[in-house]
């Protein structure tokens, strides 16, 4: 089993969710986050005053899938979330040691 953690631009969330649903992803966790990387923030003008935005709004997706499906999920997120501009995001893939569905007690891949 794999845990895929992806950061994407907020306006891409619905498009990515639809694409993942189409390939069989049955669930994901979504968190609104702020961060910076290469983009390292920007400046904005509000009511005539310029101010620095050091942390950029992003969406963090956490998706648990079987190991055999991980590459397809990564490819789908990559192709759907890509705009070609700086700040498109990052994807990390981690191993999951154990999973359990609280309601039924199902474990590991059955819990996904």
From TrEMBL:
Name of the protein in its database record: Nitrogen regulatory protein P-II
MF GO annotations: ATP binding; enzyme regulator activity
PTM-bearing positions, type O-UMP-tyrosine: 51
Cellular component aspect of the GO annotation: cytosol
GO biological process: regulation of nitrogen utilization
Function: P-II indirectly controls the transcription of the glutamine synthetase gene (glnA). P-II prevents NR-II-catalyzed conversion of NR-I to NR-I-phosphate, the transcriptional activator of glnA. When P-II is uridylylated to P-II-UMP, these events are reversed. When the ratio of Gln to 2-ketoglutarate decreases, P-II is uridylylated to P-II-UMP, which causes the deadenylation of glutamine synthetase, so activating the enzyme.
Subunit and interaction comment: Homotrimer.
Keywords attached to this entry: Nitrogen fixation, Nucleotide-binding, Phosphoprotein, Transcription, Transcription regulation
UniProt family annotation: Belongs to the P(II) protein family.
Domain of life: Bacteria
InterPro entries from the UniProt entry: N-reg_PII, N-reg_PII-like_a/b, N-reg_PII/ATP_PRibTrfase_C, N-reg_PII_CS, N-reg_PII_urydylation_site
A Pfam family annotated for this UniProt entry: P-II
Keyword DNA damage tagged: no
